[in-house]
Amino acid sequence: MAPIWLEPTRWRWLAVTPAPTFFEKTIGFAAANALTRCVFDRAGFRPGDSADSIGQMKPQPDEQIGMIGLFRSLLGRILESGARLTVVELNAALAGEGVGYRVTLDASELADCSKVVSTSTLLLNDTLDRMLAHCRNAGWFAMVGPSAGCLLDALFARGVTLLGGSWVSERQGFLDSLRRGESRSEFAGKFVLTKGRYPGFDPLLNRACGMRA
Known about the structure:
This protein is α/β, with parallel strands linked by helices. About 30% of the residues lie in helices and about 25% in strands.
């Protein structure tokens, strides 16, 4: 068994293990998201509902917008505003000119963008810090997607300004629909959190412990 140490100042367990596979990362991150939801519930904290699929960025005419990961369902909202859109992808097959936007493999082009919306897959493929470094000129960095359900302290500290994910409202109905391969929209909604509306891990933990005492 790999040795494990406890770092007392941050209540963090560090394990020396081989590099995990993508599947192992996915399972591990799902567990982290579930633990985060447990903390939220015990603390009585509920993020606000999201009414904006593009991360509240409010694109303006002729503004340069960046997108990390091609969200085809979001293209219309951005392009209708008159903004210019650059999409950064890892999949070379998607590179090229689209109708009103361009897909590139060169992440350095994000440096010209004032706002960026990103897939939460960055948390799984180890590209978050690299992408954030290219977005140093962006005043708004929204991360959205079903993987975005972890504690946010480290993300906000790195420069993420908004996180949007899924919030399961009815557990059993969600699981039953998942097993049947049906839509889960009736049992889950979208949430959004910004730095100003996030209490932080320590206050949440204190509230959770207080509720259990």
